[in-house]
Amino acid sequence: MSTVTHLNPPELHSSPAFSQATVAEAGWTLYIGGQNGTDREGVITGGIAEQTAQALRNVLTLLAAAEARPEHVARLNVVEIEATAALG
Length: 88
Prior knowledge:
By secondary structure, this protein is α+β, with helices and mostly antiparallel strands. About 25% of the residues lie in helices and about 15% in strands. It has two helices and three strands; from the N terminus they run E-E-E-H-H. A three-stranded antiparallel beta sheet has the order 1-2-3, with helices on one face.
């Protein structure tokens, strides 16, 4: 049976509902959960550009916590939705 390691680095907001990322030891695959523009306190600030930059910094933090680098990423999906469009 393979081991699953949950990554919740202190630089990111901690949630009791989910892990920020997991590593499946069977083939060493890192799965990063959906990231948003929250800082380590869970605060979202700024417009879409600042929030997108923060979300990508969060991804880099998770890669570093797993001792991986951006060049190790096989797939990255980015979805941006303007709040007014989502509510409309």
